[in-house]
Amino acid sequence: MKLTATPAHTRALGGALLLCLLAVAYGRLDALIVALPLIAYIALAAALRPRTADAAHETPPAVAHVSAQRVLEDDPVTVEVSTTAPHTLLSVGMPAQAALRMTPRNGLITGAGATRLQLLPLSWGRYDMGPLVVQHADILGARRVAEAVSPPTISVSPGDAAGAGQRRLNRVLGISGPHLSATKGDGIDLASVRAFRTGDRVNRVKLARDPPAPARSTSTRCSPSATPMSCLITDTDRDVHALASAFADRTGSSLDLTVRAVAALASRYIGLGDRVRVHDFGSRIASIRRHRAGASAPHRGPARSRGRMSDPIRRLTPLGHVRSGTLTFVMSPLLTDEVAAEIGRLRAAGADVHVIDTMPAAITGLASRAARDDVPASHRSWATAWGMRVAERKVLIAQLISQGVPVAPWQGGDGR
């Protein structure tokens, strides 16, 4: 990038030339005296012009850094924009974003060589803060150039995941090394050699090691499959939110409650040493297998999906085989019979199913507000319709409870 003259520098140069011509043509010494400050400004600007080793005197581009790329809600993040060019003033402007508080509030700041913006994310999600508009100028404002800089993306996890469970493992299962469970089985880490018995796999028999005798031996291995597994099921295609903005009320959206519940439960059970699998009945969250949940669930779950958000509601994607006794949490606003039928199928398969109702409290309270005089007429019909829909949900919830499936609303990290 090459610095170009600013309007102030152009006006100073034109004024100095005009005054010098007047002084020479008419012998006016006062015109020359008036031109001296302008000449000094031009000379000083040329002396303090940012220079590099490049023959074209091009200014190196600015670089943006963030203090952390993965944070929790209400954790401050610092964005620093700097340049290696000497005697340079940087003016940085950041576009405003919902649920992102900036200091300064207008997102504009100027500094010598480097500037810092303080950000405070108020809600979970993935924040793409760019492009930042960065203007390079010398200290006198005689030359400047502008560019666009894209800082790294910030991923903000729900605050419910913080302290969800005491971590008893030093590493995530199956990611940075084998996890040695207490039960020996057909696993991944060699434990000992024992006599072959009925039910063992034939390829486990050590024919090269065994003598020609009727008794064969096989390797005993520590199996991670003996580790308890938790299954988290979400219903994201049916996102229900109140009339108010979801950023103004953090519990104003069923998708928001679902993500908070997934983040908190995954962090808790992974910290306790369990394997976690995430499955979505809808299409916004890609299913995470149990071998990848340890690395992906705490970070991939709490991210606002930007793709296929406007697609029509699709057919429910059922969960495949589930082992009997698997602890299963289903997070859904419970608006369709298909979800209830899938919950019943999981219950019949032997899974220990717990339903977390993610219907926002603002929606369930609309029925009582419909008859109030202070509610506008335009909102009264909306409240009445949702009141009828909530009444239908009560029948569905009663059927689930009668089948032995507990149903409870999500109350946050401290209330589950």
UniProtKB/TrEMBL annotation:
It comes from the Bacteria. Residues 290-311 are annotated as: Disordered. This is Uncharacterized protein (DUF58 family). It comes from Helcobacillus massiliensis.
